[in-house]
Specification:
The complex is a heterodimer of chains A (about 230) and B (about 525).
Chain A (H helix, E strand, L loop, with lengths): L8 H28 L8 H19 L2 H12 L4 E4 H8 L6 H14 L5 E6 L2 E6 L3 H7 L13 E7 L8 E7 L18 H4 L9 E5 L15 E5 L1
Parallel strand pairs in A: 3-5
Antiparallel strand pairs in A: 1-2, 2-3, 4-5, 6-7
Helix pairs in contact in A: 2-5
Chain B lengths: L1 H4 L4 H21 L12 H32 L6 E2 L6 H24 L4 E2 L2 E15 L2 E14 L9 E13 L3 H16 L3 E3 L1 E3 H18 L8 E7 L4 E3 L6 E7 L3 E7 L2 E3 L16 E3 L2 E3 L9 E3 L10 E5 L5 E5 L5 E4 L2 E2 L4 E4 L7 E5 L4 E5 L2 E3 L4 E2 L11 E9 L2 E12 H14 L4 E2 L3 E2 H24 L10 E5 L7 E2 L5 E9 L5 E12 L2
Parallel strand pairs in B: 1-11, 6-12, 20-26, 27-32
Antiparallel strand pairs in B: 2-3, 3-4, 4-5, 7-9, 8-10, 10-11, 13-14, 13-15, 15-16, 16-17, 18-19, 18-21, 21-24, 22-23, 22-25, 25-26, 28-30, 29-31, 31-32
Classes of the chains: A alpha+beta (about 230), B alpha+beta (about 525).
């Protein structure tokens, strides 16, 4: 009993463990604060489900009118390949197909997602991909084999299999929605070591974005965020 | 030294564990990932993805059948029904429905089996049951299919497969089955009575000669006159056919691209050479087509021929469909050339900006011809493609018709795109999507100027967008915008909308068109 329980080696170890854990967590938060700013809110499960489900619902919506279904099927069957913005797509196929309803529906989706004129059409050997939100330059430079799921792109997709009596196999129409969380510069996480704000990977601002330190609440984005780094339009 | 040899003390192990634990904490807390990684592999997420794929697959199968059933049926002509000399229509109907159901089942598997794997989801399709009923020129199909979707999912107790049977009933306009029976029966009976004599012939010539012979018989059958008919004959010999060794010719009759019957023709006899020819004079009232005496028909469209009675050898004439709907052996003009503003035209697609200058179109190598633009006849001679009294500035096709032996027939077509047509189409689209014009009250002149400048912006934006692809798009055209919606005073949005006019002129100040748009007003 000499010295009490503090003489037991296991108790000592537990105490050291607890102490060092507290110190480690403090250091970890400190490192994170000086590198990437304030703690990031983890997306909830239901938010994730919604983002994940939205392309499926949107694909049903887009293909519901008979003329849209027909025109999507016909274009998916073409042998032409390419990447076109919405206006380029209309210029290219508008003479051959009646696209007004399809474009009207896509524009409604764009408005819903606050992604006006951010639709890219991709025609590949497996059919047609409609991507809403991902900048065309990204699709052109990075290819379209996979749409990035990581922040800030957060691309989610849904395939609709197509069936035909031609020799073409494995056809599909794919709808991809990207950058759903990012509709303005202020949606980017600003902080030391982060580059999203300056680079604007989701192309949400024509003028570009910049990072500022909120010293007062004169700027809208700074309301309630005094002392933080925030991302604003240039 | 001895102490070190003992290995790590408990405190040392604890320290290492703590350092590792701290490192993991730092990594985890410093990570910037938004979505927890494990969400992606949650069984319910994976299963719902699989379920979404199933719902899209099922929906598209049903829509393909509901909206495309007629095209689906036309695939059946790839699988002809073997003709069995049925004695009565009732017997034929019963067998036909059963056989047709079997064929549709096969087409279903081929059609819906065309897509079998999409983004790690395997799709298997099977036809289960198929039942056909034909009544009053309609076809009813009751179809049960099985669809299996599989995706490799992590975990032991995870649903990784959807395996279900679905049923769908569809109907479409079809042929009158009794008329089909009467036509096919008469045709196969008639050709069964005919012997075909030849000695030795190339496979190509023999098939063509048989097709032409049987086509003549088919054209004479009263019961078949109401149908669009196609005939195909394939013989069972290699490149050279001999009357001694040939077994049969497979005759396929296709009606309206909706049903096909096949029958084995075996009445080959050794005898005189088939009616071959080099000129139309060899054919006693028929044309000479690909060295066989016959008449130009759908089957022989585009084939070299020599007209009946002509001493011209094959090579100068071709079977054409005339403007009046007849199949005729007519002169083939091989040296036809087109020029645009005296420059030789190489492409069959022209993009025209008629805002400045003219585009003179000339044809050489055709002694007699006429033109049609989007189906409207244009008189021959030098033609300015920008002369809108002759050619409206709407995208379309310029068809070139040669005249021979008083028959007009299409020999070529050129696709023409007008900048103006593309521009108007785009302007219409953008104006129809325009948001209401919001204001509370404005002076008349101010409102007119404001609307004019809004429309000018829309026009300039279109020009900028299109000039990225075509630098001189709409160059030379001028726009006058007239927002003549009021004369004076203060205007409020109580007037629901205003009409704005866009007048488009070319560089000679000729008014080409006037466009009118409604601009909706709304309170700001």
């Amino acid at each position: 009993m000499k010295g009490g329980i503090f003489e037991w080696p296991i108790i000592n170890s537990i105490l050291v463990f607890v102490l060092v854990t507290i110190v480690a967590i403090s250091i970890a938060f400190y490192i994170r604060s000086i590198t990437i700013g304030q703690p990031v809110e983890i997306r909830t499960y239901s938010e994730y489900r919604w983002m994940n489900y939205f392309p499926s619902a949107a694909l049903f919506y887009l293909s519901y009118p008979e003329e849209n279904w027909k025109v999507l099927n016909e274009i998916a069957l073409l042998s032409e390949h390419g990447i076109w913005s919405k206006s380029e797509f209309v210029n290219k196929f508008g003479k051959r197909y009646e696209l007004s309803t399809l474009i009207e529906y896509i524009e409604k989706l764009e408005r819903k997602l606050e992604k006006e004129d951010k639709t890219v059409f991709i025609k590949d050997k497996n059919g047609l991909i409609i991507s809403i939100g991902l900048p065309k330059k990204y699709v052109e430079t990075c290819g379209y084999a996979s749409f990035p799921e990581e922040y800030p792109y957060a691309c989610y997709s849904q395939n609709m299999p197509l069936f035909s009596n031609t020799s073409k196999k494995n056809l599909r129409i794919k709808l991809v929605t990207c950058c759903q969380d990012i509709v303005s510069c202020s949606d980017y996480i600003a902080g030391p070591g982060r580059s999203e704000c300056e680079e604007d990977p989701c192309s949400v601002s024509a003028k570009g974005c910049k990072e500022i330190y909120c010293g007062n609440e004169k700027i809208e984005e700074c309301k309630g965020r005094i002392g933080e780094l925030v991302c604003v339009e240039k | 030294m001895r102490g070190k040899m003992k290995g790590l003390s408990l405190a040392g192990i604890a320290m290492i564990a703590i350092i590792m634990f701290s490192g993991i904490l730092v990594l985890l807390i410093a990570s910037s990932g938004f979505t927890p990684i494990y969400y992606h592999s949650l069984p319910e997420i994976d299963y719902i993805d699989l379920l979404s794929s199933y719902l899209h697959a099922k929906t598209n199968i049903e829509r393909t059948l509901e909206e495309n059933f007629e095209n689906f049926i036309s695939t059946i002509t790839k699988y002809p029904i073997e003709w069995e000399n049925w004695d009565s229509y009732e017997l034929f109907e019963k067998d036909f429905e059963e056989e047709f159901a079997r064929k549709l089942k096969k087409v279903g598997e081929e059609y819906f089996g065309s897509t079998y794997n999409i983004d790690f989801v395997n799709i298997k399709f099977e036809s289960v049951e198929s039942e056909v009923n034909c009544e009053d020129s309609k076809i009813f199909w009751n179809y049960t299919y099985r669809i299996i979707l599989q995706k490799k999912l992590a975990g032991v107790n995870v649903m990784d497969e959807i395996d279900t049977k679905n049923n769908i009933s569809v109907e479409a306009d079809y042929l009158n089955l009794e008329e089909v029976y009467n036509c096919a029966r008469k045709f196969f009976e008639n050709i069964a009575e005919k012997n075909f004599s030849f000695t030795k012939e190339s496979k190509y010539n023999l098939e063509f000669a048989l097709t032409e012979n049987f086509r003549e018989i088919l054209e004479e059958i009263e019961e078949c006159k109401s149908f669009t008919k196609k005939l195909d004959v394939k013989v069972s010999c290699p490149e050279e056919c001999s009357c001694d060794s040939i077994n049969y010719g497979n005759v396929t009759l296709i009606l309206e691209d909706k049903i096909a019957f096949s029958w084995k023709y075996k009445n080959f006899v050794c005898g005189e050479k088939i009616n071959s020819c080099n000129t139309g004079s060899d054919c006693d009232g028929k044309d000479c087509i690909s060295h066989i005496c016959s008449f130009c028909s759908l089957n022989s469209l585009g084939k070299a021929c020599s007209p009946s009675g002509s001493s011209e050898e094959l090579g100068t004439h071709v079977c054409y469909l005339t403007d009046s709907g007849l199949y005729k052996c007519l002169r083939y003009f091989r040296n036809v050339e087109y020029s645009l503003n005296e420059k030789h035209l190489l492409s069959k697609k022209i993009d025209l900006n008629c805002g400045k200058g003219k585009y003179k179109f000339k044809i050489s190598g055709l002694p007699s011809y006429y033109l049609k633009y989007n189906g409207i006849k244009i008189n021959p001679g030098e033609l300015d493609l920008c002369d809108f009294s002759k050619i409206p500035r709407v995208n379309g096709k310029l068809e070139i018709y040669a005249i021979d032996n008083s028959y007009g027939y299409k020999i070529d077509e050129i696709e023409i795109n007008f900048d103006l047509s593309d521009f108007i189409e785009e302007l219409n689209r953008r104006m129809s999507n325009l948001e209401p014009y919001r204001f509370s009250s404005m002076e008349c002149d101010e409102l007119k100027n404001s609307l004019s400048s809004m429309l000018t912006n829309v026009i300039n934006q279109i020009l900028t967008d299109f000039r990225k692809d075509k630098a001189d798009f709409m160059e030379g055209y001028k726009f006058n915008i007239n927002a003549n919606i009021c004369s004076s005073g203060t205007i409020t949005p109580s007037k629901k909308y205003g009409i704005v006019e866009v007048e488009i002129k070319d560089d000679s100040d000729r008014v080409i068109t006037n466009l009118f748009y409604e601009v909706e007003f709304s309170y700001s």
